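Revision sheet: structure tokens.
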Amino acid sequence: MPFELPATDELQRLARELDWDLNASDAEHLATYLAPFADGYAWLDGQSAGLPEPRYRQRAWTVPAPAENPHNAWFVRTTIERAPGGPLHGKRVAVKDNIFVAGIPLSDGSALLENFIADYDATVVTRLLDAGADIVGKSNCEYFCLSGGSTTSSHGAVDNPRKAGYSTAGSSTGSAALVAAGEVDMALGTDQGGSVRSPASWTGICGMKATRGVVPYAGGMAMETSIDYIGPMTAGAADNAALLNVIAEPRPERFDARLGQPLGGVRIGLLTEGYAHPLSDPQVDTAVRNAAATLQGLGAGLTEVSVPAHRDGLAIWGAIVADGYWQALRLGGHGYNTSGPYSTKLSDAMSAWPAQLPHMPINAQVLMLLGKHLERYRGRYYGQAKNLAERLREAYDSVLQNVDVLLLPTTVQRAGPNPAADDRDGIFAHAFNNTMNTAQFNATGHPALSVPCAVREDLPVGMMLVGRYFDEPLLYQVAHAFECAVNWQRA
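Predicted:
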């Protein structure tokens, strides 16, 4: 709707919301000061959105039939023009359904946006097409990407290709399932608390959350600017590095530069607090420690290290995401101070979210109510958590002065069965239990790579490698060395 200045009685109502007893005479006087602002807003109403035109214009999409979507991992299938060659020529890539691909539907896993068509290309999408990648579809994801499970999407639960009826983890559910099933070579996910790494762990693929700022988030649905990441998901470390080479901002060293180099001199620290969590599956802990012993046998040094604040990191991250997501929601699915385009069309579509609240999954309802409640604290807990996130980063950095890589389980448990649609307790547990070891590094910004290291009872186990800022090439070096030495599916 076009901008309108508030009338005198509306100014009084607004003042009351701010605990200000504004009388009618003062309100009328204040209205005269507001009047000049109307010209600026009227000018803005007359301007076009100014969104970037897609570089590759020929594109089409279809909704796959159930027979073509055995794991319910696809949202839509696509055919999109691309560069005729490049480093990803011939690679089939899926893009998570919370990333803008112009002319293609975007729902963010929700019925609210079922008729929304993206109106520009995310930066990473343009880079994929420039690199010759075949973007063959959008992948299903969790409702507003608020769950670490795989059952909350309005388009139905996503099934784990490794074991029928089991969860993929989330929220990059479809991307993980499509890579694990071999339906695509690569996929993009987003990671706000582990949403690339957790599904990578549960489906037996590689998932990277790079250092903060390495991959542009422009064109991804916002949750909270300081914890939003887009990350590559692939079957192995080499492809993961190749995909990161394409979507990342240029770096002095290629991400695949150290693949094949020996591990002599690499110091690995087993992060004590990442193991033996109250929710930990002992088989997961044992499998990751066995993988560490393999890396030691390949020449890496191995030691136990401790960051006591690791266990407190969940509270820090939780306070950041609760306040931050509420503000992004109020801004129509965009975060304040993000770089890149803002889709006013998306803001209009998202404005109807309160009407959907009774129909949202339980985890989303809880976060919405918490966000509203937090308004009364005026950012106090967000600010405190941001301060503590810096102290947590310093705690990891201190340990990383004496070791090169931290090693811990990605998820403290293996995949469990997908809960039924009416199992609110099961849905809620899956939504948050997968963040125990992952969310801390969204708050601190460290690079973290999940790598499959074993199988127990047909269910993959993921180990997570965490490094210093911008040390992704070292993480890939370690992951690739492990892959070359061990068949993880028999480990």
